[in-house]
Amino acid sequence: MGEQIPRIRHLVLVPLPYQGHINPMLQLGTALHSKGFSITVAHTIYNSPNPQNHPHFSFLPMPDGLSDSDLASGDLVSNIQVINENCKESLRRSLEQLMQEKELQGDTISCIISDELMFFAEDVANNLKLLSIILRTTSAATSFARCGLLKLGGEGQVSLQGSSSHDLVPQLHPLRFKDLPFSLTASFGKFAVLMEKAYSNRTSSAIIWNTIKCLEQSTLEKIQQQSQVPIFPIGPIHMIAPPVSSNLIKEDRSCISWLDKQPHNSVIFVSSLGSIASLSEKEVAEIASGLANSKLPFLWVIRPGSIRGSDWIELLPKDFHDAAGDKGCIVRWAPQREVLAHPAVGGFWSHCGWNSTLESIAEGVPMICKPCFGDQRVNVRYVSHVWRVGLELEELKREEIERAVRRLILHDEGKEMRDRATKLKKKFEICTREDGSSNYSLNELVNFIMSYDS
Ligand code: UDP
């Protein structure tokens, strides 16, 4: 009898089309590709990834039905619903065809891995009798908080549009009411519907999590106790996957040569919005003055369109460039992980999206935290209060900003945060080594997928 040719095992990835979700999903694809799987990315037309960055992957576009006015509304919750309503049929048809093609080649589709908010993909997997796995791209603490928030909402214990109260939330310590992960644009009812879908009655067979045991072990244990399916914490995925860029905006690498000219630990890297949030002209003026008055070097990411009413930096105060002199460098989009790894960077002012939080800790960089909405609030509380590697900026006021930057970069308090961040960085390195917990979970995930397929 001739030797059997091993089948190629094929995975279909379905990311949510926002940068903070696309990055970990494509990093996961890269990690699994290095384990021998072939990868197809089923993506919306909106924010579609650049295939040239991922020459080993195949791509399946899905018409998402998002109109210009949907996109202009900035209403994430509604847009996620639109995507879920419109992509299902197209994914089902494309996968049926792909399954036939693979069968002819003697290969199989092993599994669909979908973002926790791309519910339709789970339905399609059930329909086609394929293994389905969820990728959660937020912290475990955020999941816990969202479930807690739903419960409090059901009991009428939270005001519907969020709260600024500093009181601790019963059952959710160390979170205060102001740290709960409310949506910025949606009503509580609409947000609750989306969260119910994300956390109840899921039919997937496992959960992959972009988090790391050394940071979130106790929360992960609580969640695993309540979960019917195995959880694989394999984060930070960018540390276990071969390097890959999935940025939707072109990175401006000129900031690296600017950083090369700055003293060690002297620069505050300001990327305070991530890929979604925006600022008013007044808020930008406060940031600009605070940075200039700190008299410290800064690298500031201003995403095109993130200052409301302008294309880019037209609305910065007229005297800003004189006030900042050669202390400042502004870019549209930075190679963030490379910037955080640069020795000149002494601190990171972040909105604390989960990827940014992990990336900052992974490089031992302490943070100034100012959340915009949702899970960022939970992350800020953990960064500043539990892991104590950052300080929270309460208000977007120039004096407060100037003080926070100087505290982080120059004062002992900042140095202590940097020392704690460096200790966590070392723990991250241990967990993501070949024999570390994240890589162990990745190997368990691979075995799990293979066991369904043999
Ligand atoms: N990012 C980047 N360059 C920038 C700003 C952000 O590469 O100038 C990347 C960052 O490294 C992170 C992602 O964009 O991986 C943002 O994800 P995060 O979860 O931090 O925030 P979100 O955009 O989802 O609010």
TrEMBL record:
GO molecular function, one term: quercetin 3-O-glucosyltransferase activity
UniProt KW keywords: Glycosyltransferase, Transferase
UniProt keyword RNA-binding present: no
Pfam family, any one: UDPGT
Coiled coil stretches, renumbered: none
CDD domains xref list: GT1_Gtf-like (cd03784)
Segments crossing the lipid bilayer: none
Family recorded in the similarity comment: Belongs to the UDP-glycosyltransferase family.
Protein name as it appears in the record: UDP-glucose iridoid glucosyltransferase-like
